[in-house]
Design goal:
The chain is mainly β and 188 residues long. It is built from 1 helix and 16 strands. The relative contact order is 0.10.
């Protein structure tokens, strides 16, 4: 496809599965606030896409795998779930804003996001799933809220640069018991 940009009309409420799948020249898309559903793989392999804003009316999505040039993602308040492998392989992703309304981030969601340097885990989240941040080789800092009750032992596998896991004051024992290396934990 030679499609480079799309402005979806305000009357659209749903983007179907595979709607823009493999639109390799697509650089920009505007999703209106009235959209409430984005189908699976709607934007997978859009290798030129640079940024995206997910409207708050979309409760869950899984659709940006291997968007190699995606640098910035803003997820608006109201979104509840980032499903499995959602941003896997988005090698240029540097910035992700995740609101507190997000209560689930699926396994492998940010796997191989090799440009991601820091992440703030939202207050609504209670677990960090298996391989969620696996092979995020530039990840240096993670901020984890007290709401986290479970962290998969392989959640941060391959994150060689991860030197600082910022946790709330007085929670070091709790997070060490969840499997995080005590030497990386910083209470703030």
């Amino acid at each position: 496809s030679k499609l480079e940009s799309v402005e979806i009309p305000d009357s659209v409420t749903e983007i179907g599965s595979y709607a823009f799948h493999k639109c390799k020249k697509l650089k920009a898309i505007t999703i209106p606030n009235g959209v409430t559903k984005i189908g699976s793989d709607a934007f997978t392999y859009c290798t030129a896409l640079k940024s995206i804003v997910i409207p708050g009316g979309v409760t869950s999505f899984t659709c940006f795998t291997n968007c190699k040039k995606l640098e910035s993602v803003v997820i608006q308040e109201g979104v509840e779930s980032i499903k499995i492998e959602c941003f896997k392989g988005c090698a240029s992703l540097k910035s992700v804003i995740i609101p507190d309304s997000v209560t689930f981030i699926g396994p492998l969601s940010f796997c191989k996001c090799t440009a991601l340097e820091s992440i703030f885990i939202p207050n609504g989240l209670t677990q960090i799933c298996s391989e969620t941040f696996k092979d995020c080789t530039a990840l240096k800092s993670v901020v984890i809220p007290d709401s986290i009750k479970e962290i998969a032992t392989d959640a941060f596998d391959g994150c060689a640069e991860l030197n600082e896991i910022i946790i709330p004051v007085g929670t070091k024992n709790k997070f060490a018991d969840l499997g995080l290396r005590r030497s990386r934990l910083v209470e703030k």
